[in-house]
Amino acid sequence: MSNAERVLARMREYMVGPTRFMNLFACFELGIVEALRKESGLTAAELGATVGAKPDAVEQLLYLLVKEGFVAQDEATGRYTLAALADVADADLQRALTFMGMVRTGMLRQLYYLPESVRTGSVVGLKELYGFEGTMFEAAATVAEVRGAWGPLARNETASVYPWFFGSFDVPAGARVLDVQGGNGLGAIMTYQSKGPDLRVTTFDRPFLEAECLRNFEEQGLSEHCSFAGGDILESLPTGYDVMLLKHFVDMYDKDDVRTIFGNAHRALEPGGRIVVLAPVYPEDVADPGDYQADFFPAYILGCVMGRGGLQKASTYRRWLEESGFEVTGVTAKDPADIPADAIINRVVISAVKRG
Ligand SMILES: C[S@@+](CC[C@H](N)C(=O)[O-])C[C@H]1O[C@@H](n2cnc3c(N)ncnc32)[C@H](O)[C@@H]1O
Question: Span of the secretion signal (predicted)?
Answer without folding.
Answer: none
